[in-house]
Known about the structure:
By secondary structure, the chain is an alpha/beta fold. The protein has helices spanning 25-33, 45-54, 58-64, 70-77, 97-119, 135-147, 163-172, 198-202, 217-229, 264-272, 287-296, 305-308, 317-328, 359-364, 398-403, 417-424, 451-459, 461-470, and strands at 13-15, 37-41, 125-131, 152-156, 176-181, 186-190, 208-213, 238-241, 278-281, 300-303, 335-337, 347-349, 376-381, 387-392. Helix 5 (97-119) packs across helix 6 (135-147).
Amino acid sequence: MTDNGSQTVAPRLIQAGMGVRVSSAKLANTTSRLGALGVVSSIGLRHIIINEVRAGNAETIAVAKRFPVRSYVDELLEFAPGGPRNAQPPPIDNPDPAKSELPKRLSTIAAFIEVTQAKAGHNGVVGVNVMWKSALTALPSIYGAMLAKVDVLLCGAGVPMELPDIVRRVRSGLDMEYLPLHGTETNARLSISADGTSELLTSMPAPKLVPILSNYAFPKRIVDIWDREYNGARPDAFVLENHAAGGHNAPPRNKQSFGEQDELASYFDKVVALGVPVYVAGVGSSREDFQTWRDRGAYGMQIGSRFALCNESGLRPDLKDTVIDLNASGHGDVETSNRLSSTGYPFKFVPLPGTLTDPDVYEARKRICNKGYLVKSTIVVDSDGVEQEAYICPGMPEKQYAKLGGDVQDTVGRHCLCNALLATGGLGDEGEPPIVTLGKEGASITSRISARDIVEDILTPSYVAAMETKLRR
């Protein structure tokens, strides 16, 4: 994985892109200054940034005004104090072409703002984590991040097969349509040809492409298909994520429970043999773990849970304290549910009273689908026999799901991650309970420390001191 001019080599440590607001611009800015790859999460950025603009956040508004397409700026600032949309909720994605463009433009400028803030004041390396299953915001997030000169695109929770084509089209100012985006069952479209941004984008270095995967088969397919279909394109690195990592996990091979065949160690060497640098994740987070995998041939390590619970993360402070206190008392735990997430992927969660994984809280919550980050496309037939695209999610109300052609049994036990993860970042609607996701490593964290402490622990204080000086702007 080559550098972007700011470092002689790419960072060996990746601060993972987690949740909604957890991996915020503040956290990524901090870690990238210290010589790590600081990563922001793209999930929920439309809501995050609109809420900041609505509150009159001067820094966010100032960065928004730097976006190169004025119409996007004007639309976002309608949510500012005194603006005509200040009291309105953020618009959500809509299959109706007439209603779909505004949410996409707002997601685009939101990604631009978050990445710009993460890159401010230093010459470190910044990436954005794009959740492939959130297909409706994947293209706008990539576009906005590239306009902010993002260094690395990390794509997980799916197989980003079209990623080289997306980057090529963004840099060429071409409209995009993927019907559906690979592996998502969701039609993804983005209109950018009228923006006139191609010349600006081609003047910037193209971002590095780093898929996040959990087996040997998908890295092999990406290497083969990218080479064959995208003019010899090649990933700059892979992140191989063991099933102990937090958030969404790849389904187990036997479709029921994780076993030896799912362990990263069982396929790691074969992926390394593909000749693409490999970062490992979900296999520990200590300096010793880091060195063990480096000795085995890993380029570096991605760490999530320690950063999620550090001082600079966007996880609600009260939730951090509750998790850490439980861990310190010996009662902390992280569980995996094959049913919880509407994506159908296994999902790690911390069982905390008062959160959405509390059975009583789950049963008491009124089901609603008003954020739409994890919906997928479906076709419905109206009373006139006309087919039209609609969005469906098993986390929505049962009657609504059935009306859209879904099997009501699919809704049983499904949680609304959109609302819950916004609440976890302190941005939930009134009454919406949070949900905490960590990797298995998260149950061993018994004190709150800084992001600097973590980076120094992995990369050593002397390395961090040297990089902090080198990357200072």
